[in-house]
Design a protein that fits this description.
Stationary-phase Survival Protein Sure Homolog, Chain: A; 9-stranded mixed β-sheet; 29% strand; 8 helices; 271 residues; homodimer
Chain lengths: 271, 271
């Protein structure tokens, strides 16, 4: 595995930076047959050699799950009679691990997870399979970002796909991302002039108002179905509000979850 | 949903603090039939009314996954002819949501997830179902901790169970935890005098050295199986090294994953 350079940045290799073609890995959690990953592939292929390793079916809200108790299988997927990518029986995190550790001959310079159908903002970042694909990339020392379109209906991925291409260029131009940090990008559903710009924002700390539908199946057995929605936001400097105001939101996310502020207080507790 | 008090702490209610019995919710990711959750139940029941809502089978390494595309089912589980708890078809995070939103009449004052068979240290925190049970509790505004025994073989949960009881008392005595923060506890496998004490430590930033076993099934199809181990540690002030030195490790974990340090640099990028 390539380690981060001493500067604390994950550097792309000099040869890659000067090559006309860079290696890019794509994954997602909506599955390899989704339109979101196809739009991303079409937009990115002019930048380099793009490989897709993605779940064979939808794996939404899997969090940063990985598959330990079952084997993983891989098959080649074709679209319009051309090789499109590898479908696996695993989660997005599994896909990235498999790509780097077993499938790819050359380590990618960039990993992109998406384009997700639906936003990944606030605490949903913790549940998101899309984000976890990029998290796995960051853990493996490769510059990575997740990109989501903030709508569930009538999606048009073109703007988001072009923005992904632009962001890929910016990451390369800035020589990567800090070790263990990824970018979480959300793009408003509106297109063209209605998108007002880009905001670098923190993750919102807003809980989803959840409830369970309690139902009865045809055999008179009870079952529960989770439902809920984000009903509030917590400030202009956070992802949920940026999207509501028609900005593209970019939130740097890191994998050290230690609450350093509380550590000192906890050291004074008596056990 | 109960909100955190204005002080920024999740307060237990006055009535609960003065009651002789407090309400405690237990969950885990090894499943309701595991020995770890039974040991926890036996140790905690003298502290209050303990309710178990746990997966019906092992859900390890599910990360902070939740179940959106399938319904959840719940059944009562008996051990030694006595009601023991509720088993669900969901993940640990699902179990906590279901308990709070649908099954329990009274909101618990404390949620404990474990005792896990095997450690949850370093970046494994991101993959851990055990930790995600406590994370869900913290997101719902209830003081929560995860507890794991740092062995995979010949586990003796008694010391860890007694430590969980002690920590539950400390959390109540200190009037809860900050909103959105949980504790991640790891207990060395050794018992008695060999445990040297308690260390409040950060999450290690050590990658697991992973690889895939590539195999062939009886039908000549290829499959991959993930394996790997932690081979290094990154300092005395982190969880992996504390456990190696025979200390109980306690790491405060929060749910805001924003990399604030990198935000300012990112604002200077040109897109």
């Amino acid at each position: 595995m390539k380690k981060a350079a001493l500067s604390g940045k994950i550097q792309t290799t000099t040869s890659a930076a000067t090559q006309s073609k860079m290696n890019i890995l794509l994954t997602n959690d909506d599955g390899i047959y989704s339109e979101g990953i196809k739009a991303l592939y079409e937009a990115l292929k002019s930048l380099g050699d793009v490989t897709i390793v993605a779940p064979d079916t939808e794996r939404s809200a899997v969090g940063h799950g990985i598959t330990l108790t079952d084997p993983l299988r891989v098959k080649s997927v074709y679209r319009s009679n051309k090789f499109f990518g590898y479908a696996t029986t695993g989660t997005p995190a599994d896909c990235v691990k498999l790509a780097i550790r077993a499938l790819l001959k050359t380590e990618p310079e960039l990993i992109i997870s998406g384009i997700n159908l639906g936003p990944n903002t606030g605490y949903s970042v913790l549940y998101s399979g899309t984000v976890s694909g990029a998290t796995e990339g960051a853990l493996l020392g490769i510059p990575s970002f997740a990109i989501s379109l903030a709508t569930f209906e009538n999606p048009d991925y073109r703007y988001a796909a072009q923005f992904a291409k632009k962001l890929a260029g910016a990451i390369i131009a800035n020589k990567g991302l800090p070790q263990g940090t990824l970018l979480n990008v959300n793009v408003p559903a509106h297109k063209g002039k209605r998108i007002k710009g880009i905001k670098i924002v923190r993750q919102s700390k807003v809980a989803i108002e959840e409830r369970f539908d309690k139902r009865e199946d045809p055999h008179k057995h009870t079952y529960y179905w989770l439902t809920g929605e984000i009903v509030s936001s917590d400030g202009q400097d956070a992802d949920i509000e940026a999207i509501r105001k028609d900005y593209v939101s970019i939130t740097p996310i890191h994998c050290d979850m230690t609450d350093y502020d509380f550590m000192e207080e906890l050291k004074r507790w008596k056990f």
